[in-house]
Write a structure and sequence with these properties.
The protein is α+β, with helices and mostly antiparallel strands and 176 residues long. The protein has one domain: Arc Repressor Mutant, subunit A. Helix content is 51%, strand content 15%. The chain has helices spanning 3-16, 25-31, 72-89, 95-102, 117-130, 133-142, 151-158, 162-171; strands at 34-39, 45-50, 61-66, 108-111, 144-145, 148-149. Helix 1 (3-16) crosses helix 5, helix 3 packs across helix 5 (117-130) and helix 7 packs across helix 8 (162-171). This is ImmA/IrrE family metallo-endopeptidase. InterPro entries: IrrE_HExxH, Rad_response_metalloprotease.
């Protein structure tokens, strides 16, 4: 899937949920009828999407986060990354496809050095979901002084790492 299509999809979901810049991503997971669990995961795995269900009396999915993650910003991005798999690769919003995917016992996980098309797509989704284009440009313009962007303040507005904010700006062509 093309990056711009993924970004637009993530931003549409963000807008539909009417999320603020530094929204509580745990409430988003719960609102989507999912659960979040901090646990010990296999070596190198920092988050995973598991326990898919289309049964009414059970949560629809579980996102497990490594108990070794200490940064709130890293935690948020990892959860958003797993939501990317949920929406893009598992067709969460399409009931028929979701029910079919639930029967497959698919598990997606994010490792330290994730590569591959699906992982890149989930990262693209996470960045756009946490930092939608219009909001990102507006915040960036607010923190532009003396021909420089204050990356730390921009990142704080979205509760993401400076690195995530930097790459979002690069991908949007705001800075090089």
């Amino acid at each position: 899937m093309h990056n711009r299509i993924i970004e637009e999809y993530a931003e549409r979901i963000n807008n539909t949920l009417n999320l603020e810049n530094d929204f509580d991503i745990e409430n988003v997971v719960i609102g989507l009828d999912g659960t979040l669990e901090e646990t010990t995961l296999n070596s190198g795995v920092i988050a995973q999407l598991t326990d898919l269900s289309d049964e009414e009396d059970k949560p629809k999915f579980k996102i497990q986060i490594s108990d070794l993650i200490v940064s709130e910003q890293r935690r948020r991005f990892s959860i958003a990354h797993e939501l990317g798999h949920l929406f893009i690769h598992l067709d969460f919003l399409n009931e028929e496809k979701w029910a079919n995917n639930c029967r497959k016992s698919i598990i997606y996980h994010r490792e330290e050095m994730s590569t591959g098309i699906e992982e890149t797509e989930a990262n693209t989704f996470a960045a756009a979901f946490l930092m939608p284009t219009d909001k990102f440009i507006k915040v960036s313009n607010c923190y532009f002084n003396d021909d420089r962007y204050d990356l730390k303040k921009i990142a704080q507005q979205f509760n993401v790492s400076k690195e995530s904010a930097y790459y979002r700006g690069v991908n949007l062509g705001i800075w090089v």
